[in-house]
Every structure is written in C-alpha cells, then in structure tokens.
Amino acid sequence: MDNLLPTLAAIAGLPQLLLVAGLVMVGIDLRNLYRLALAPKRPDKLRFYYIIPGLALFAFGWELLMLKPL
Questions:
Q1: Does the residue 26 lie in any domain?
Q2: How far is residue 66's CA from residue 15's CA, in Å, rounded to a whole number?
Q3: Which of 9, 24, 34, 40 could bridge to 64 as Cys pair (CB 3.0-4.6 Å)?
C-alpha cells in the first residue's frame, strides 16, 4: 500500500487528468446552480450529483501531483 500512491503518480498524465475531470464535474453542478439561481420558478428538489465526486477526484489528483517528483 505504501507504493501505490507513488506508482499512480508516476503514470503519465493521470494526476492532470484527475484534476481536470474533477474541475469539469464541479463545473457542471455550479452551472446548474447558476441556472437555478436565475430561474423565476424554483424546483421542488435541488439535486447536485457531481460536486462531491468532482471534489474527491480533484483532491486525489492534487495529492498525486504533489507526490510526483519535479
């Protein structure tokens, strides 16, 4: 288990892919929140499906990026 994170960090482009994927997922929900804020009628249920997994992907990608030697 100690070698798992450095091994994943060594995969070319994986940390950057996770960062971008996390930002895109969070951006989808923020766009939906923006549309809801400007809508004249509020929906009954407010559901945001991508913000928590997006933040998790972003945090994991950031951790892998910080482990990667420069």
A1: yes
A2: 9
A3: 9
Domain presence at residue 52 = yes
Write down how long the chain is.
70
Alpha-carbon gap, residue 51 to 13, rounded angstroms: 22
**30 CA to centre of own chain:** 12
Residue 8 falls inside a structural domain: no
- The alpha-carbon radius of gyration of the chain (Å, integer) is 16
Q: How many domains does the chain have?
A: 1
The angle formed by the CA atoms of residues 14, 60 and 57, to the nearest 5 degrees, is 85
Identify the domain containing residue 24 by its residue range.
13-67
DSSP assignment, residue 9?
H
Q: Which two tokens stand for residue 50?
A: 């991508």
Q: Is 40 within a domain?
A: yes
Q: Calculate the average pLDDT of the chain.
A: 87
The pLDDT of residue 70 is: 60
